[in-house]
Amino acid sequence: MVLDIKGLMNYLKVGIKFKLISFTASLLLIVISFLSFLVLSGIKSYQNKETQAILFKQKDMFEEYFSERMSLNKNVNYDDSLARGSIFNKAWLRTIPANIYNTKGELLSGFKTDAKLNENDEKKIMIDYAIKGKASYREINDEIYFYSPIKYKGNTAAILELEYSIKENNLFYSDIKKLFYGIGFLALVLGISVGIFYFSRLTRDIYEMKDSVESIQKGEFSKVHKVNRNDELGELSNGLIFMSNTIEENIEELKVERDSLSRAVDKLKKMDKQQKEFIGNVTHEFKTPITSIKAYADVIGMYTDDLKLIEEGTLSISKECDRLSSMVDNILSLSALEKYDFEIEKNEVNLKEVLNEICKTMMAKVKKNGLILKCDAEDIVVTLDEGSLKHIFINLIDNAIKYNKPKGSIYIRCYKSGKNKITISITDTGIGMRAEVLPKIFEPFYRADKHRSRETGGAGLGLALVKKLVEKQGGSVKVNSKLNEGSTFCVEFST
Fold first, then answer.
1. Could you give the CA distance from residue 255 to residue 242 in angstroms, rounded to a whole number?
2. Could you tell me which of 463, 488, 481, 478 has the C-alpha nearest to residue 409?
């Protein structure tokens, strides 16, 4: 059996609601008990003072009457003056049961008392105490036994015993005490009920904030709720909401930064891969013309007397040098576009004029290959980089010438294809391309037909450069092609 320590601790843990209610109940109990003690003590003190006042007043009346009698009968001794019944002739002296004792402790006169005191013990002690000139009393059940000396001319003439009932006082005190107990109990119950009602809401809000803190720890920010209170707990809740929102925003920002960093890393990896492939392709492409040039040079060196061979070798070397130069230019241009974010120079350009100029320049090559070139361009003025435009269209027309069929044709169109669109299309009747190679033809060093490209001097850089130049000016380039039927390249710009 595995002991669940955490569950046990949670079971034994005293909640804040119980603590608050217990504290409130304890505080109410202390306050009610203290107030009850003060009130009941005050009542008891008042009753004791009132009783003492009555007893001492009665003692003073006996003492005063005794003095009057002794003044009238100077020759009578104390004991005779206090003979049984003689001092109680006055009705006002009989309001409280009383006995008179001489200084020897002998009963002289008075009414019979309940004699609840031990005659041989307690009463004797108290009479002896009174003989010494001091008053004392003893409370037994509902009766007070009071003993006091009766003075005459500074001397103790006799001892007065009073029996005073405090039954009514005790009943009153008992009733008051019961009343306070009842009120205290009701106040305690009411206080606990109010405390349960109030602290239930208070602890509910506290537990809700506790749940919000746990939700923040788990990252579940949607579960963080505001507590509607106009006190410190409300301020704390607002602080939790603010903290939750801040943490969530920071996490989202970190996610965005992480994604950006991840994309940057992927881009760097891709660029590194592309760079390695680029260097490999450049090395490979450079080897071919250099090897050809070296071979022709060796042949010329070996057969210095063969003029025809020297002429053919010289032409081949010149052709390979032109190819090498073109390749270098394209590589440098493409590399610049890849690495540097330079500003292009945009000016107003008439597309019809630019295309006609390019067609005139390319016409000699077109006729040499036995092709027909037709240009149908609208008179459209755009704001673009003229040098880049010429480079784009020269490359596309040159491709149409290289990969065309004998006696084929090239058709160039320039027109507005929409409200804010301009399209320049170059269509040839050449060898065309398979559909699966079309997505790759704008990649550097990619050739759809490697054998054919080698013969025509292509290195797979022209179309890659075209795409970069077009996109640099905010345009796009697309191609449609069918094998053995021809290709159409469409360049679009926004006005």
1. 20
2. 488
Residue with tokens 């005293």: 14
- The residue ranges of every structural domain in the chain are 16-174, 226-342, 344-494
Position 76 confidence tier, pLDDT thresholds 50, 70, 90: low
Check whether domain 226-342 has CATH 3.40.50.800, yes or no: no
> Rounded distance, CA 471 to CA 494, Å?
11
Helices (H), 73-166: 78-81, 122-131
- Average pLDDT score, the chain: 77
Both tokens of 361, joined, read 């320049």
Eight-state DSSP code of residue 345: -
- For the segment 361-399, what is each residue's pLDDT rounded down to a tens digit? 889 889 989 999 999 999 999 999 888 888 889 889 988
At 395, the amino acid letter reads N
pTM to 2 decimals? 0.42
Asked if residue 427 lies in contact with residue 401, where contact means CB atoms within 8 angstroms, the answer is no
Say how far apart CA 176 and CA 472 lie, in whole Å: 102
One-letter identity of residue 109:
S
β-bridge partners, 491: 424, 477
Helix (H, G, I), strand (E, B) or coil at 465: helix
With 80 as the cut, is the pLDDT of residue 422 above it?
Answer: yes
Superfamily of domain 344-494: Histidine kinase-like ATPase, C-terminal domain (3.30.565.10)
Q: Which residue has the tokens 């170059």?
A: 426
Residue of 11, 186, 152, 154 lying closest to 81 (CA atoms): 152
Q: Which fold has domain 16-174?
A: Beta-Lactamase (3.30.450)
Structure tokens given for 50: 């009132």
